[in-house]
Design goal:
Number of helices: 6
Helix content: 40-55%
Distance between the termini: 19 Å
Shape: elongated
Order of helices and strands: EHEHEHEHEHEH
Radius of gyration: 19 Å
Length: about 190
């Protein structure tokens, strides 16, 4: 048997369509092998801990006039974005600072809109935390460009960009739990 763990944060297009098609093709090519696909990371305390760690690496302590934008790619499927909002609420509780989810594409508010709203509310420091696992073009080019534009627009205010989630050893905990849940589900199906 083979277990496929999606290394994705949410259940968007790539998990539901692209990866699912690859797994289905593998199953068709090897009908004598059981191929099971797990769930993406979704909501997990480890994700909140890693975002918190990235923020504290950038700014160890912050004043009460500080807000956080959790920057995500997003997907057109609203239910798939739900875990991002849950992580944001937990982050808000952990850091005792307001957190807004904002998106690169597909959803609103945009990252610029979320920063604008915090500025209008009187926040002087805005921490922008990329909720991305990989250092692709969004993390390397697009997000820094959005930050440069905000700094030019609001001279005198502080806009900080944290590191993206990247690799963290604690993700192994999530993967192990996803595998164990998949095994429980598989056993339930077999006994039914």
């Amino acid at each position: 048997s083979i277990y496929v763990q999606p290394y994705f944060l949410i259940d968007g297009y790539y998990v539901n369509k692209a990866l699912r098609n690859l797994v289905d093709e593998g199953q068709q090519a090897h009908p004598n092998i059981s191929i099971t696909m797990g769930e993406p990371f979704g909501v997990h305390d480890v994700l909140v801990e890693v975002v918190t760690k990235r923020i504290k690496e950038t700014i160890p302590t912050f004043a009460k006039h500080t807000a956080i934008v959790l920057m995500a790619h997003g997907t057109p499927t609203p239910t798939a974005n739900a875990p991002i909002y849950t992580v944001a609420r937990r982050l808000e509780s952990t850091l005792q600072a307001p957190v807004r989810v904002a998106f690169m594409e597909c959803n609103e508010p945009t990252i610029s809109e979320a920063m604008d709203a915090f500025v209008k509310e009187g926040f002087e420091t805005i921490i922008n935390a990329p909720y991305f696992l990989h250092s692709g073009s969004h993390v390397q080019e697009d997000l820094p460009q959005i930050m440069r534009e905000a700094k030019e627009k609001y001279a005198g205010l502080e806009f900080l960009l944290t590191g993206h989630l990247g690799y963290d050893e604690s993700f192994a905990i999530i993967i192990q739990e996803k595998f164990m849940q998949s095994e429980v589900n598989r056993q339930k199906l077999e006994s039914a």
